[in-house]
Write a structure and sequence with these properties.
Number of helices: 14
Structural class: mainly alpha
CATH superfamily of the largest domain: MetI-like
Largest sheet: 2 strands, antiparallel
Radius of gyration: 24 Å
Strand order of the largest sheet: 1-2
CATH topology of the largest domain: MetI-like fold
């Protein structure tokens, strides 16, 4: 044991300059990530006042928030919108990546890649505004419907369509980015495998099924888990595209936390909600990691 410690210290001493270079990064994460996280957990057990010292209330914030129907519905909304967006983006991105890979003309390939990736570069302020106009009473969709004498639909006030609109627009924005991740893995596959498959007269569909998809499994698993990490973090989209008519259907946990913590300055409730969201996310990720352990 002592010999192992000596060996460890020897290695630390040997690479001390590397560790010194890492120190600013570690300090950054400690100050701006882990310290606020710890402070947030502490505040979730307190009644934070605008002026004066905070009052320790124990589990009261957690009991209060779990009785709040708005918070429970925000968890359900966040899960439905989050998982729906992730699954649609995941499947669509894979299809787009496979389709781009099959293109022979490099110029067309670059145009499609750039076009599909562009929505990811824009903020939700821009993307939300575009879709609000497209789905508005005088927008593109209702204009097309007008040619067929169809009744105008107020898409952005229909609560039955609210979650579906969030899922579709969210997927539209994220497809290009995820497709590039898949495409990078496809390009990295050993070309000798495809040559061997062609010698064996394997069709292109069979090559995709037997070579590309199995090689993509680690990337697919990693991308899926990274997507799950942001399952309940949808804020920009619902804040920009939401309105009083549909807010009950699209309010996510982060929007609920914003409304309580920033708008009403109910910090204790907001931080308790944050901790619950963090724990839910961790539980989901641990379960998925366990199920996908062979692909990671």
């Amino acid at each position: 044991m002592n010999q192992h410690k000596k060996k460890t210290w020897k290695l630390i001493k040997k690479y001390r300059f590397v560790y010194l270079l890492l120190l600013p990064v570690l300090l950054y994460f400690f100050i701006f990530s882990y310290l606020p996280l710890f402070m947030g957990i502490v505040q979730s057990f307190q009644k934070v006042k605008l002026m004066g010292t905070s009052e320790w209330v124990g589990w009261q914030n957690y009991l209060e928030i779990m009785k709040d129907k708005s918070f429970i519905s925000s968890i359900i909304n966040g899960f439905i919108i989050g998982i729906g967006t992730l699954l649609l983006t995941f499947v669509s991105s894979l299809i787009v990546a496979l389709g781009i890979n099959e293109l022979k003309e490099s110029k067309i390939k670059r145009i499609i890649q750039t076009t599909s990736y562009l929505p990811h570069l824009f903020s939700w302020t821009v993307v939300g505004g575009i879709w609000i106009n497209i789905l508005g009473p005088n927008g593109f969709v209702n204009t097309i419907r007008g040619f067929f004498d169809s009744k105008t639909i107020l898409f952005m006030t229909e609560d039955d369509l609210a979650q579906l609109i969030m899922i579709l627009t969210g997927a539209w924005k994220g497809i290009g980015y995820m497709a590039i991740l898949f495409l990078a893995s496809i390009v990295a596959i050993n070309p000798n495998l495809f040559e061997a498959a062609q010698i064996d007269s394997a069709s292109r569909l069979k090559q995709i099924k037997k070579i590309i998809i199995p090689d993509l499994k680690p990337t697919m698993a990693t991308v899926f888990i990274l997507g799950l990490m942001g399952l309940f973090t949808n804020f920009d989209q619902v804040y920009i595209m939401g309105n009083p008519a549909i807010i009950q259907k699209i309010r996510t946990p982060i929007l609920y936390i914003f409304e309580n913590g920033i708008s009403r300055f109910n910090i204790g409730i907001a931080t308790a909600g944050s901790v619950i969201v963090l724990l839910l996310t961790m539980i989901i990720i641990f379960i998925v990691r366990y199920l996908l352990r062979e692909d990671l």
